[in-house]
Amino acid sequence: MKKIVISGATGLVGKKITQQLIRRGDDVTVLTRSIKNAKELLPGAHSYIEWNSSNSDWQFCLEGKDAVINLAGENLMAKRWNEIHKKNILESRVKGTRALVRAIENLNKKPEIFISASAVGFYGNSETAVNEESKMGNGFLAKVVDAWESESMVVEQFGVRRVNVRLGAVLDKNEGAFPQLYKPFKFFAGGALGNGKQWFPWIHIDDVTGIFLYALDNKNVKGVYNAVSPVPIRMADFCKTLGKIMHRPSFFNVPEFILKIIFGEGADVLLNGTNVLPERTIDAGYVFKYPELTSALKSLLY
Predict the structure, then answer these.
(1) CATH class of 3-170+202-229
(2) At what angle do helices 83-105 and 140-153 cross, to 10 degrees?
């Protein structure tokens, strides 16, 4: 049994990881902005502590823990991008991570590992395949991820093992982007976003959970790891596969201008993609449960 503190536990990824940790018998402390909400969504945790990165009232709960998992951050696509939302995207990640790292620095007994979520947005947009050794790309998200990961790296100065999990588009039946992609197919109106030629670095939610737990349990895992399927696919092919499984056509593409009206600059996240490979993840010994799209989609839909 491990003693683990987790921030961002009520989000899509956080809920799945926390539920799995509780199920396997770990002692989980949930850092949350709403204790009431966290208890309803995640019953069975050892404790629930009110989380506010701007004060230090919660820091006592880190003492003597084996691991800290950091998943807190503003939802990228929760609203249309403007300067305020972009500021919140950046600051929620950087300030939250900084607060946790500073708290760890002041502990008498520091955790063995600090695992922080990250994103494949680090690579910008690239037709050429990239992996964990590839350089930083261009754009707002690349700068966000660089700043986010830089904060987490500081824990290594205190002898704490650091892992950054760069997430692709997480496929979950009930939350995130996937329900918005498959619902139009139910009404024979499904299709790709934009021209469909962009790469779509996806990953099944069970593999996201698997990678985090694998990092937690294996001391040889440290540094940056891509959490994406090892079989790259373009958006149009993703939608064709989805349509085939659902016995629906895939030709009603969502025009670029509509996405830009809805999401503003954030539409670039949907209209541009990168061919990301999880080479370090595979080399570290993690075996994907759903490396291939067809089996992944069937597990979510049926």
Answers:
(1) alpha beta
(2) 10
